[in-house]
């Protein structure tokens, strides 16, 4: 959540044509992570095992590096 807030703050400070905005695009992976975490918190009260599986899914999703930012910033 803190990363997403930082990202949004940087993009707002740099304006709509920010290189960071161009690099991350819609940031579907980041938004999906937040939604999955929020879902896991709610489900934890009903079934902790499902909640743990969701947390594991988010961690595995981010295990593969997302090179968009580094690639975009290096070439401009």
Layout of secondary structure:
Layout: H1 2-14, H2 19-24, H3 28-44, H4 48-63, H5 68-75
Helix pairs in contact: 3-4
Quick rundown:
The protein has 76 residues and is mainly alpha-helical.
Notes on the protein architecture:
The protein is mostly helical and 76 residues long. The chain has one domain. It is built from five helices and no strands. The chain is elongated and about 45 Å long. The model has no long low-confidence stretch (mean pLDDT 86).
- How many structural units, i.e. domains? 1
**How many helices in DSSP terms?**
5
Strand content: under 5%
By helix and strand content, what is the structural category? mainly alpha
- The separation of the N and C termini measures 28 Å
Uncertain segments are none
Shape: elongated
- State Rg: 15 Å
Q: What's the average pLDDT?
A: 86
| Total number of beta strands | 0
State the helical fraction: over 70%
The biggest beta sheet reads:
none
The H-and-E topology, N to C, reads as HHHHH
What keyword list fits this structure?
mainly alpha; 79% helix; 76 residues; 5 helices
């Amino acid at each position: 959540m803190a990363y997403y807030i930082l990202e949004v703050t940087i993009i707002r400070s740099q304006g709509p044509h920010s290189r960071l905005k161009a690099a991350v695009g819609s940031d579907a992976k980041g938004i999906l992570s937040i939604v999955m975490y929020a879902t896991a918190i709610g489900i934890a009260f009903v079934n902790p095992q499902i909640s743990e599986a969701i947390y594991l899914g988010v961690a595995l999703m981010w295990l593969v590096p997302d090179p968009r930012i580094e690639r975009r910033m290096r070439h401009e």
